[in-house]
Design goal:
The protein has 559 residues and is mostly beta strands. It has 4 domains: 43-99 and 125-169, Jelly Rolls; 178-242 and 278-330, Immunoglobulins (Immunoglobulin-like, Sandwich); 334-428, GOLD domain (Jelly Rolls, Sandwich); 445-554, Immunoglobulin-like. Helix content is 11%, strand content 43%. The protein contains 7 helices and 36 strands. The strands form 8 sheets. Strands 12, 13, 14, 15, 17, 18 and 19 form a 7-stranded antiparallel sheet that branches. It has a 5-stranded mixed sheet with strand order 1-3-8-5-6, covered by helices on one side. A 5-stranded mixed sheet has the order 20-22-27-24-25, with no helix packed on it.
């Protein structure tokens, strides 16, 4: 719409609308009311821009109206209107006001006589509805417009406040704002696994014409399909997550919210939004029309929507969504636990799978021992199918359970973090020779700041009432290695994994009074201003060591 022309032409259109007053003689009560309503609608409407997508905000039960006209000189011209609901279903209509070719807005040159205008104003006029729709689908109306017609668009939301987008164009020769969908816009599911679904779809004609500015984006969720990218963003945002703009699906940078995770690999951008209502995943894969969705949960129904996105205009078109249910996870392989035998289990944190151990009791009392080696692990124990214990493991853990002969215990282990975790497990009758030595109340190593020198460090640790062997090891480290040494160390590994040069000493001690079972050692021959990692290993009757919590101490720079 050319605004310079429009402001000259607008008074004539208002005059045309006013001419309705003169074109109807002695109207009935009902027709008079309808006439006044139509007149009011035209006067209280906004201008709908031509060739531009307009966002319209609707308040519940309050209609909003827009109108448009064609440029002067175009007798008949095609036009199209596309309306995209971004949330709840809406009602929208197209009304047209038509008057004869001789109406004032289109008077022939030289025809400016006041008497002629007066005659034209008395000519018959008509307002009619040419299109009406109610729903939440993307709808496009295509028609032919006359220069002697005003078009009024009316939008109404009866459920709640919402917003929509409206696109009007009268230019059908220079392409489309929205990317073009193929003749068959369906998404085909070509493969289903326990944690993956493979999808394919037919190429959009727009990809062949504008490969550099077009890309496919996939949205995965567990609720339902979405009929537009606008609707998907609104629904996700209303669930408590703040999404980036429509084209955050492209590779343009933006700040992620705390509940969002962005993964960029192999030229793909994945955005995972996490909320209480589930996980919404967005992936853009360029112009590839086949994609395998990874890291899904077994036995779960997912909904898949593909959008073809124009990176230059942010406009998008939606393929027909589909859904698929991942396969059930096969029963985990169960490892048999035997009396007194130690099983070392390594868990893959990325797959988050349970590892199952089974033990059949030959005594009423059963003793389970867990030594957490690395990471974080959750243990779940059932007896004859009923839960008897469930907790997160920390360090060394003993669980004593009482049941009946031949009870079947199943121990399920799962990593609670993404990195790999490992644990040692033993099951035995309660009176069986213990796997680990008697432990003190705390496995912490204490250092004395006042006793630190440039060349020595004094440390202390708790012992027990049983005479046991303790070995001390030291290792020189850099400051940037401290976190890795303290958090990634294998707590089940013994002195055999250490270099011989790291060994400081081994000693035996005990005290029948637990309050006095404390020992100290001063480690000498150190370098000034240097970080050292100290470890203490406790050996019991079985010979399996228990590692105290590592301690990092820095010697003084100057003495």
């Amino acid at each position: 719409l050319k605004m310079s022309w429009f402001w000259l032409y607008l008074p004539l259109h208002l005059l045309t609308v006013t001419s309705l007053c003169h074109s109807i003689k002695a109207p009935t009560s009902s027709s008079q009311q309808s006439f006044k309503t139509n007149l009011f609608n035209f006067y209280h409407s906004l201008i709908l821009a031509d060739g531009k997508e307009t966002t319209v905000h609707l308040l519940k039960d309050i209609p909003k109206r827009y109108y448009f006209v064609l440029e002067e000189g175009r007798v008949l011209a095609p036009f199209s209107i596309t309306v995209t609901p971004c949330d709840v279903p809406i009602e929208w209509s197209i009304l047209v006001y038509k008057s004869p070719p001789g109406f004032p807005g289109k008077a022939t040159p030289g025809d400016h006589d006041t008497q002629e205008i007066s005659k034209s104003q008395k000519a018959p006029s008509m307002v009619s509805t040419i299109f009406n729709y109610k729903g939440n689908s993307v709808e496009t109306y295509m028609g032919m417009s006359s220069h002697s017609a005003l078009y009024l668009l009316e939008f109404l939301s009866t459920e709640r406040d919402t917003h929509i987008t409206v696109y009007l164009t009268t230019d059908t020769t220079s392409g489309h704002l929205y990317p073009e969908l193929p003749t068959d816009p369906r998404i085909d599911v070509v493969g289903i696994g326990h944690t993956t679904v493979t999808l394919t779809w037919k190429h959009s004609p727009s990809v062949l014409q504008h490969r550099d500015s077009i890309q496919y984006c996939l949205l995965v969720n567990e609720k339902h399909n979405y009929k537009s990218l606008c609707a998907a963003e609104t629904a996700t945002r209303s669930s408590g997550m703040k999404l980036p703009p429509t084209l955050a699906l492209s590779l343009s940078p933006y700040l992620l919210e705390p509940q969002q995770v962005m993964i960029l690999s192999n030229s793909e951008l994945s955005i995972i939004n996490k909320a209480s209502s589930g996980e919404v995943r967005q992936v853009c894969m360029g112009t590839r029309n086949t994609y395998t969705v990874p890291n899904l949960s077994p036995s779960t129904q997912y909904y898949f929507d593909v959008f073809i996105v124009n990176l230059l205009t942010n406009a998008s078109a939606a393929y027909t969504g589909t859904f698929a249910r991942t396969l059930e996870e096969p029963e985990p392989k169960v490892t048999e636990l035997k009396d007194g035998k130690v099983v070392h289990v390594v868990l893959d944190g990325k797959k988050q799978k349970f590892y199952s151990l089974q033990y059949q009791a030959r005594h009423k009392k059963i003793h389970f021992t867990f030594q957490l080696c690395r990471g974080q692990i959750r243990v779940h124990i059932t007896r004859n199918g009923k839960t008897v214990a469930s907790e997160n493991l920390s360090g060394l853990r003993y669980l004593s359970l009482k049941g009946k002969l031949l009870d079947t215990y199943v121990v399920q282990l799962r990593s609670t973090e993404e990195s790999n975790s490992s644990v040692k497990v033993q099951a035995s009758p309660h009176f069986h020779k213990p796997l680990f030595p008697l432990l003190p109340e705390s496995l912490k190593i204490k250092s004395f700041s006042k006793l630190r020198t440039c060349r020595s460090v004094t440390i202390a640790w708790l012992g027990t009432q049983e005479e046991s062997k303790y070995c001390v090891y030291r290792k020189r480290i850099e400051e940037d290695q401290i976190w890795g040494e303290l958090h990634s160390a294998d707590r089940c590994s013994g002195p055999e994994s250490r270099h011989k040069s790291e060994k400081v000493l081994c000693k035996y001690f005990y005290d029948l009074n637990p309050q006095r079972a404390v020992t100290t050692e001063t480690i000498k021959g150190l370098e000034a201003g240097t970080f050292y990692l100290f470890d203490v290993y406790l050996f019991g009757p079985s010979g399996i060591p228990v590692r105290y919590h590592s301690k990092v101490v820095k010697t003084r720079k100057k003495c």
